[in-house]
Amino acid sequence: MNQGVIVKGIAGFYYVRVESGEIIECSARGKFRKSKLTPLVGDRVAISMIDETHGTIEEIKTRESLLIRPNVANVNQAIVVFALKDPDINYTLLNKILIVIEHYGIDATICLNKSDLDDFEFEKVKKIYKTIGYDVLKVNALTGEGIDALREKLKGKISVFAGPSGVGKSTISNNIQKDIIMETGGLSKKISRGKHTTRHAQLIEVSNDTYIVDTPGFSSIDLSFIKADELQYVFKEFKVGECKFSSCLHHKEIGCKIKEDLENGLIPQERYTAYINILEELQDNRRGNR
Ligand SMILES: Nc1nc2c(ncn2[C@@H]2O[C@H](COP(=O)(O)OP(=O)(O)O)[C@@H](O)[C@H]2O)c(=O)[nH]1
Ligand SMILES: [Mg+2]
Ligand SMILES: [Zn+2]
User: Fold this and answer.
1) Least enclosed by CB within 10 Å: which of 75, 150, 243, 284?
2) Which pairing describes strands 13-18 and 2-10: parallel, antiparallel, or unpaired?
C-alpha cells in the first residue's frame, strides 16, 4: 500500500501525491460514502494501485485539524500576513484572525510584509506578539528579503495564508513558488486547474512534505460562533486557570488575576483592550439576537 496526501479533488477524483513524488489519480472506496467520510484535500491516505497512474483510497488517517473555508484537512499553521504600511495594520482584524486560528487549534506565525515602506511598526508588533508566543517575521515580497526565514517556517507542514487583501499574500506565495521551481530545475509539477470545474482548494508542494494552500483562509471573520465566556480561552497569554473566580470574564471583576497580569505587564495592554472590545461585541450580539 502507498502512503500519500491528497493535493487536489475534483468531481469524485482525488489526486494523491505519493512518496515517490508522483501524483496518482484515485477514487475512494464506497465505505467512505457510507460512513459519510468525504476525503478532503490535505488528508493523509493509504492507497492501492490499479495501474501505474491510477489508484483507490483505502484508508484516511485521523485528521489533526479541519478548516471549513477553505475546506482542507491537516493544516498545521497559518501564516498571518499584514503589511507594515499601505495598508496600515488593522489590529482588531489581526486579533480576530488569531482567535479563529486558536479556535482551530493550529499554529500561527505573523508575517509582516512591505518592510521597504516602514521600519518602526515592525518593532511594535514584535514587542506585543512575541511576548505572547507568536513568531513574527519581516519580509519584502518584492525583493525576496526575509523569504528564506519564511520558507524555513513552512518546512514539513501544510500552511495556509491569511490576511486582508492588498497586503501581499499572492506576491509572497508567488515568490515562494518561483524559488521552488528554480530549486528543482523546473521539475516542479503544477497541477493545472480544470477550466469548467468548481473552484476547490488545492495544495501546492513547495518542497518535500511541505505544502501551501492555494487560497487564503479566514476571509470573513465572524466570531459569533464563540460564546462570550469562552473568548478568554483563545487568548493564549491569559492564564485563565489562575484566576480564582471560576466564572470570571476578567472585565469588571475585582481581584481578577488576568487584570493583575495586565498591570504587571505580562499581558500587553493592546491585547487586553482587544479582548474587552470583542467580549462586548459578543455580548451585544447575543442581546441583539434575543
Ligand atoms: N512596496 C511593496 N509592495 C508590495 C510588497 N509586496 C507586495 N506589494 C504590492 O502590494 C500590492 C498587493 O499585493 P498582493 O500580493 O496582490 O496582495 P494580496 O491581496 O494580499 O494577495 C501589489 O501591488 C504588490 O505589488 C512589498 O514587499 N513592498
Ligand atoms: Mg491575492
Ligand atoms: Zn478574572
Assistant:
1) 284
2) antiparallel
Let me know whether 155 and 42 are in one domain.
Answer: no
Atom 3 of ligand 1, residue of closest alpha carbon: 114
Low-confidence ranges of the chain (pLDDT < 50): 182-197
Q: Using the mean position of ligand 2's atoms as its centre, give its distance from the Cα of residue 53 in Å.
A: 33
User: Residues at the annotated binding site?
Assistant: 113-116, 163-171, 243, 248, 250, 256
* Residue 196 pLDDT: 46
DSSP annotation of 161 reads E
For residue 41, report the distance from its CA to the centre of ligand 2, in Å.
Answer: 21
For residue 167 and ligand 1, the question of a CB distance below 6 A is answered with: yes
**Which residue segment(s) compose the domain that 244 sits in?**
228-289
Rounded CA-CA distance 275/236 in Å is: 11
Total domains present in the chain: 3
Q: What pLDDT is stored for residue 197 in this prediction?
A: 47
Cell of 111: 508575517
Cα–Cα distance list, 220 to 70, 165, 196, 279 (Å): 11, 11, 26, 18
Q: What pLDDT, in 10s, does the model give residues 40-56?
A: 999 999 999 999 999 99
Neighbours of ion ligand 2 (CB under 5 A): 169-170
Residue 199 to residues 71, 114, 162, 165, Cα–Cα distance (Å): 11, 29, 18, 19
Name residue 59's amino acid: E
pLDDT of residue 186: 44
Q: Are the C-beta atoms of residues 175 and 141 closer than 8 Å to each other?
A: yes
Q: Which atom of ligand 1 is nearest to the CA of 172?
A: 15
Q: What is the pLDDT of residue 240?
A: 92
CA separation for the pair 71, 135 (Å, rounded): 25
